[in-house]
């Protein structure tokens, strides 16, 4: 465990034991005949000697030896008891025994008789240890006691209080100490209180308030990519899609978007904002790069984006890939119709026949597309056969019969047999 108390702190405490009160007052910058704000006590000679031996053991990194001495001290005076408890609590904290440390430190601060630095340090350490042991209410109480005792405004302590309230699920109580932490940090900004505010608002579904915090945060921490992504996502929660797109687009240009979900969200926002070409380019780039999985869902999105952008050949290409990936008739049908639209009649016929082979439900319309493709290839015999198949479907019968007549007449006019 990280050392919570330094030898310098303990040394200062022991020097306090040995020096006359007048010297301490002058060293603090007070006049010789002025009274200190808090009365300074000294351990008795017998207890002081044992404390000195314990400090020697501690200085030699023999914490167990120091504890053996300290726990054997039988102090009778209130201050002696308090100081021994203070020293013992710090030793247990350094050993990582938080439960014992809390026990001794609580006993140390209870009579409120320790010297000013020791009382203040013990209150703060108590709070830290109680947070570690998930005794959040007690920790918050001691952090407030530390501030009341020292008269200090500390950003870290306010953040710990906010975190304590969050841990207790007192989400509404998180905001005030988080704001006080922000004020206390001043120009030395910390992300922690902002994160606590955002989390508090988010978990209470106060998305507009969370957005306001994030709008501030991205200005203070412009290099923090997580905040840019969160702001874009939160704009979608309040249905401000233009700002969501602007924010995530800027984040993307700064190379902040790394996760598949983030890239897909940006693509979706482009689609939603009627910029399908950009959506398609983004998806294509990151699918090819492996940043987005090449699965049926994502390839469908890519094919749809190219289709919406009126890049029929590319849409047909990706529907073809999707069809091979899934062996699904509807994708072959989509591919075939797009190829036909792009006047790629031969590959269109192949794809459409594959859809029929796989049991496509809308056979009448598919046969119509097959027939029309043959017709435009001037293969009137195959076109006539396909129109006959289309005529069997009630949904396409009327239209197919018209084409049957037209195909027969065209073939006769051009001297071709059916």
Automatic annotation (TrEMBL):
Endpoints of the signal sequence: 1-27
Repeat keyword on record: yes
Keyword set, alphabetical order: Repeat, Signal, TPR repeat
Protein name: Tetratricopeptide (TPR) repeat protein
């Amino acid at each position: 465990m990280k050392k919570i108390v330094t030898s310098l702190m303990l040394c200062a405490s022991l020097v306090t034991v040995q020096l006359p009160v007048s010297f301490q007052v002058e060293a603090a910058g007070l006049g010789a005949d002025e009274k200190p704000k808090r009365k300074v006590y000294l351990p008795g000679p017998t207890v002081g000697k044992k404390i000195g031996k314990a400090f020697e053991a501690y200085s030699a990194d023999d914490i167990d030896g120091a504890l053996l001495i300290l726990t054997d001290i039988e102090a009778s005076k209130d201050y002696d008891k308090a100081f021994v408890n203070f020293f013992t609590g710090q030793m247990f904290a350094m050993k990582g025994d938080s439960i014992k440390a809390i026990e001794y430190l609580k006993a140390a601060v209870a009579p409120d008789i320790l010297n000013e630095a020791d009382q203040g340090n013990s209150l703060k350490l108590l709070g830290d240890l109680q947070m570690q042991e998930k005794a959040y209410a007690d920790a918050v109480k001691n952090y407030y006691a530390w501030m009341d005792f020292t008269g200090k405004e500390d950003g870290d302590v306010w953040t710990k209080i906010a975190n304590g309230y969050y841990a207790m699920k007192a989400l509404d109580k998180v905001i005030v100490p988080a704001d006080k932490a922000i004020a206390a940090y001043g120009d030395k900004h910390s992300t922690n209180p902002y994160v606590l505010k955002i989390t508090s608002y988010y978990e209470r579904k106060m998305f507009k308030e969370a957005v306001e915090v994030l709008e501030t945060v991205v200005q203070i921490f412009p290099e923090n990519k997580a905040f840019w992504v969160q702001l874009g996502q939160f704009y979608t929660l309040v249905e401000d899609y233009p700002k969501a797109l602007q924010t995530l687009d800027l984040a993307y240009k700064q190379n902040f978007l790394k996760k598949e979900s983030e890239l897909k969200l940006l693509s979706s926002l482009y689609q939603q904002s009627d910029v399908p070409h950009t959506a398609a380019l983004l998806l294509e780039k990151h699918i090819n790069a492996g940043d987005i999985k090449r699965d049926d869902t994502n390839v469908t999105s890519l094919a749809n984006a190219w289709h919406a952008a009126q890049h029929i050949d590319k849409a047909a290409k990706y529907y073809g890939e999707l069809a091979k990936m899934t062996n699904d008739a509807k994708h072959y049908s989509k591919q075939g119709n797009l190829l036909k639209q792009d006047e790629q009649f031969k590959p269109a016929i192949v794809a459409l026949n594959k859809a029929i082979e796989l049991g496509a439900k809308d056979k009448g319309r598919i046969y119509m597309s097959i027939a029309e493709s043959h017709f435009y290839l001037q293969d009137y015999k195959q076109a006539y056969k396909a129109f006959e198949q289309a005529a069997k479907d009630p949904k396409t019968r009327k239209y197919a019969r018209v084409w049957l007549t037209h195909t027969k007449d065209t073939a006769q006019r051009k001297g071709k047999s059916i």
